Structures are given as structure tokens and as C-alpha cells.
Amino acid sequence: MAVKFQSEEWAKEMTNTLQANEAVTGAAKGQNTSVQFVTNEVPGGTENKTFFKIVEGVPEVGVGDIDSPEATITQTYETAVAIDKGELNSQNAFMQGKIKIAGNMMKMMQLQPFVQAVGAATKDVIREY
């Protein structure tokens, strides 16, 4: 069953998938962090806010605002979809100015092994864009 990208159902499916994947949990081990995503230019003229956090090595994806994120990533819906589909690498998107990061850049760099594991782990989650 497909889940709508950046919806509550998507967040639950992503969380379940991440927590069940050994590569992801291995990359998250010992980590504590939170990142807010702000996606603008969403079809319908809205803005979506989602987040991911790792608490004591346990990853979670959610919809809405998170208190005191270590970083906030702002992107357009088009960019978010391209990254989610694996058509655009997040580092390339940053270098091209397609995503803006405010906050702890060092922490974002340290999370790269986790981010790579997430992409591989969630590739089979069917999303509706």
C-alpha cells in the first residue's frame, strides 16, 4: 500500500522501517539528534514540516515541529521528492543551493552514514507524491 509523502502514515511507515533495519540502527547507535525539515512550494500552496530524531540510538520520523532541533533543513517540495526518490543526492542538493541548512553543520556531516543507510532501508516503501 502506498503512503502519501510527508503524511502521518508516511512518518509511521518510515519509523517502523528504520527501527527494523540493522544497518540503520547500527548507524544510529549512540546517536542523539533532531532535525527539522521545512518543505515549501508544496502542491496546493502549503508548507510541510517534518522531522527526524534519534534518541539513544532509536530513529523516529514525525510530522510537525520538533523542539530545539540541532539543524533545520529548508527545501522545495520538488527537491524533497527528488532526494526521496534517490534522483538527487542531498549533498549535491546542498552544494547546488537547493537545500538550506541552519544549525549544527558538523552534526549533519557526522550523520552521513545514517542518511545513506536510511536511503537503502526505505527504498521499498511505496510513496505517493
Explain this structure.
The protein has 129 residues and is of the alpha/beta class. Helices cover 39% and strands 32% of the residues. The protein is built from six helices and seven strands; from the N terminus they run βααββββααβααβ. The strands form two sheets. The protein has a five-stranded mixed beta sheet. A hairpin with a 3-residue loop joins strand 2 and strand 3. Helix 2 packs antiparallel against helix 6 (112-121).
List the helices and strands and how they pair.
Blueprint: E1 3-4, H1 8-19, H2 22-28, E2 33-42, E3 46-55, E4 58-63, E5 71-76, H3 77-85, H4 90-95, E6 99-103, H5 105-110, H6 112-121, E7 127-128
Low-pLDDT ranges: none
Which sheet architecture does the biggest sheet show?
5 strands, mixed
Reading the helices and strands in chain order gives EHHEEEEHHEHHE
Q: N- to C-terminal separation? A: 13 Å
Write a brief structural summary.
By secondary structure, the protein is an alpha/beta fold. The chain has 6 helices and 7 strands, in the order E-H-H-E-E-E-E-H-H-E-H-H-E. A hairpin with a 2-residue loop joins strand 3 (46-55) and strand 4.
Describe the structure using short key phrases.
single chain, 129 residues, alpha/beta, five-stranded mixed beta sheet, two-stranded parallel ribbon, 32% strand, globular
